[in-house]
Structures are given as structure tokens and as C-alpha cells.
């Protein structure tokens, strides 16, 4: 097989660190020169000075040098995220050793080591050798691994015979505090709420070239997601998480607790590599999911207008009749006009709604009642609608923000999205009558101390009215399920059409209660819980509903709770 080593080297100023952390750049040059004795293709990243060094010490026919100076790392968008965490005392004071470490002291250390996966992927793209397998090897590897494993023992050929997936080398690691500066409890959370008991080494990893693009993509998303959350270790922390998150794609060879890679190469020499993977977790996909046996409740809140209620039902039947036919249906009737009672009862009987008649609980008081009612049912999910929030049934045209309004089988697809992502709630419409979800409306409603914490550069409310420079909503990922696009991130809560899980309902409305809830109160509370990672919301990148109250009532009758 055509096996290629990928490496890189830059002078980061490590020689200036305190004793125990310091190492002269010349030490790494000497170790890199030892790698040059390996009878294999080598792709090397580095600056112009390294390029001259390589030209003097390595045969060109088996060498590909890719010029890349440190500005490339500095200009990547994750550079500033790394620096923000690196300089934060809450990060570097979480462990006694961390403050004087290379990743805390050296500006370029983490930007470089956390780019190894990207460099391996770039090597795959630029590879002039048309390699079958590519392996990242740290330039200083021979500091602990004898080069004879490569020159005399032919370990690359032996490794390539057994590495059929993207592979890491791991050592056992027991802790309850942090892994390389990445808080342990968060590591376990990212690993799928399971204990992390190993660390994947960054000195040697790789596999068949066709496995590299997907590994790179998953790593890229994980890097940005964790940095955005203020969490950072090194590349080894992220490699470890990949093993737990996607055992179908990644495997590992285990070495001793001391973490020395020489154990792995000794095993390779003797053809005793034992490959492992984490316990496989079924990856949910729309193709493998069925919603036919999922128990779903449909809740509608109404006030003094049977015609509004019936128009909503008719819009559901025309748009996607499964909203009516495949749900257990409840009408919370808040009406104060006794003349409407008989007509509501007739409509409920016609369409098989349970008619729940209450005195006027108010919009939010009714919403709280629905949350408590839903919690006592066996339903896994509930859809919530007010009686004037219809589905769009006219000829298909985009909303004012350009999003599609009509989608087939929206009922099934929305539930699948909830199941795949394990969302607490998903808003069904991006564009709303009074605004849209591109603006972070929670900014207006959180307490001032939270506004200063979350938006330190934009924490002053306008004296009156709306601020044209109010913060935009932060979306973390854009995904798709059966052709329906959706976004994750800091989606704010409001009383617009949505689907809510049983667990989400508890976190949103039951764990914390207010005697007289308001929509603004929930918006503030749920946003803070979202920031704290206790609630996970989503939003469809569609606009299938529209607000249309065609039968108005006096403003004096409007009640919140």
C-alpha cells in the first residue's frame, strides 16, 4: 500500500517557558530529522525556514513540502475563541498545572495542535503521492518512539493492514475534574452523558484516505461547538469525544496508562494491534424512524370565537391532515361569552376534540394549564396552537424572509426532527406577524445583570420602542431532515406554534412556576436555561403558519394570566 506520513513544525517560542515546560526548537528539528530516515512518503507543513531545512535533509522525490506559516493559524476564525478562553482565569485556574502549561502560556500552541486534523485533511487534498493511507505523526515523535520501528520493523505496512477505519491510540485516564483543561463533567455530557475514561493521543492518528473527510467535518463542528461553549482542552480532548460520539466511524488501539506511544508501535511491530470501539449507539436517522406509534397531543387555546377555532382546524386538514387525524386533541376554551359555548361543543364533537371549559385563565395562564395537563398524559409530544395561528394554505410563495411556506408531510417530519435531535421544543415558523426569529427578542426581557453577562457590548435598552441594533439570534447548526431545514442554537421562546417534548415541558413550565406567568417571563427564563444548556430548542427554517385574528375582541377583555 501507498502509506504517507503527514507532519508539521513551527517555532512557537516554547524555549521561553518555565522549567518543566520549556523545550528548544532545535530539539524538534533534530527529532524531525530522525523521521526523515523513514522509507515512506512524507508531507510536511511549515514556514520558509523549515522549507530550507527540509530541502537540505530529505530526498525530494519522497517529500512534499506545503508552505504554511503561523499566520494561517492566526487567521482562522477559531483563533480568537481560543485566546478568549486561554486568558480567562475561570479556565486556567481550574487545575494547578494549567496556568503554566504550553496551552495557557503560548498564544499559538492550541491554534496549532487543534489544527492537526485540518492539516491532515489538507494533505489528503494536496497529496501528490495518491496515497492509500495517511497518518499524522508529530514532528517530535522520535523523542519517545525509536525511529527503528519505521525503518527496520515496517510498522506502517503492518498498521495499514488492520486500520480500516479512522483510528486513534488511547490510554486509560481516570479523573473527575478536567482533561487537558476541558471540564470533565462537560466531557461526559458531550460524550452522550456517559463517563469518559480514556484519552486519544494526538501524536499519531489517521487511516484510509477516504475516512478523512468525514472525520474532518465532525471534528470541525465539534471544535467550534465546544469553543463557543467556553470549553477547551487540546486536540486530544476532541479526538476522545469523537470516539464516544461516533463509534461507527472511529476505532482505537489501547496503550498503557503512561500514554507512551512506543507501546503501540511495539505491538504493531509484533502484529498484535487490538482495535476497539466504544459501545455502539444507534445513530438516529429519518430513514430508520417511524412516527406511526408516537403518541402526540394537539392543544389549542381559544377565546370567544368558534369561527377562529374552526378555521384553524380546516387549515390543518388542508395543509397536513395528520395534525388532526394522528393526534389526541384538546381545546382549552377560555371564552367568557356564553353564546359561544354551544358552537364550541359542536365543533369539538365534529372533530373529536376534548372540550376543556375554563373561566378566562388568560393566554399565559391557559398555556400553564396546558403544560400541567400534558404532563399528566401519556403523550410523548404536544403541538401547541392559539386559535388565530393558521397554516398557510394559499398558493406556495415564500415568506418575507424568503422561507418556504408549504411542505408536504410536515407533521411526520417535525416529529422526526424532535426524535433525532432530542429537542425540548421546536418552533414551527421562522417568520411571525410581529417579527421574526433572526432577532434575539430575549434581549429585551432578561434581567439587566443577565443582559450585561450575555451581551456585554450591547447591554443598554432603548428608552422607548425597539432598538434597530438589538442582538441577532445565535444559530449553532443548520441541518435538514427529509428536506425540511432546521436550525439549532439560542432559539427564543414565545407563544407561537410549537412542538414540545414531555421532558422539555417539565423544564420549561413545571420545574419553575410563576403565580401569574407572562410570555416575557417565560422568554427570559427559557433563554437563561438555554444558555445554561438545560434546555435545547430548535426552529424550522420554514414559515408554514400565519397570524390572522379576523374576529377581534375588546382590549379590555385581553388577559395574560
- Give the terminus-to-terminus CA distance: 72 Å
What's the assembly state of these chains?
single chain
CATH fold-level assignment of the largest domain: Spore Coat Polysaccharide Biosynthesis Protein SpsA, Chain A
Total separate domains: 2
Q: Shape from CA axes? A: elongated
Low-confidence stretches: none
Describe the structure in your own words:
Helix 8 runs antiparallel to helix 12 (212-228), helix 15 runs parallel beside helix 17 and helix 18 crosses helix 21. The chain has two domains: 3-273, Spore Coat Polysaccharide Biosynthesis Protein SpsA, Chain A (Alpha-Beta Complex), CATH 3.90.550; 295-548, Spore Coat Polysaccharide Biosynthesis Protein SpsA, Chain A, CATH 3.90.550. The mean pLDDT is 93. The protein is elongated and about 95 Å long. Strand 20 and strand 21 (484-489) form a beta hairpin. It has 561 residues and is an alpha/beta fold. It contains 22 helices and 24 strands. The strands form six sheets. A nine-stranded mixed β-sheet has the order 14-13-12-15-22-17-23-21-20, sandwiched between helices. Strands 3-2-1-4-9 form a five-stranded mixed β-sheet, sandwiched between helices. A four-stranded mixed β-sheet has the order 8-5-10-11, covered by helices on one side.
